[in-house]
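User: Thanks for the earlier help. One more: Putative endonuclease. Can you show the sequence and predicted structure together?

Assistant: Of course, both are below.
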Amino acid sequence: MKKSFVYLITNKNNTVIYCGVTSNLVKRVYQHKTKYYKGFTARYNCGKLVYFEEYNSIVQAIAREKQLKAGNRKRKELLIQSINPHWKDLSEGWVFAM
């Protein structure tokens, strides 16, 4: 069964939080870091992975993404701080060989 992920990514000053869903977290984070797509995260320089959850189905991941997007920033901040209190880049040290 293919894994799916919901993730929160931010910029270096933690002023913007973007919520996304993917079936390949390493590839997607690489795309954000390199501004592969010229959208929201490229415009706001979001490339720091600060939170993610893993799911067994894309349907579950999309449902969770919608739940997170419906919440306010404070809830997202609390979620990040629950596992990553210093807002470190969780993808630091990952090898991005695409």
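User: Great, one quick takeaway?

Assistant: The beta strands are 4-10, 17-22, 48-55.
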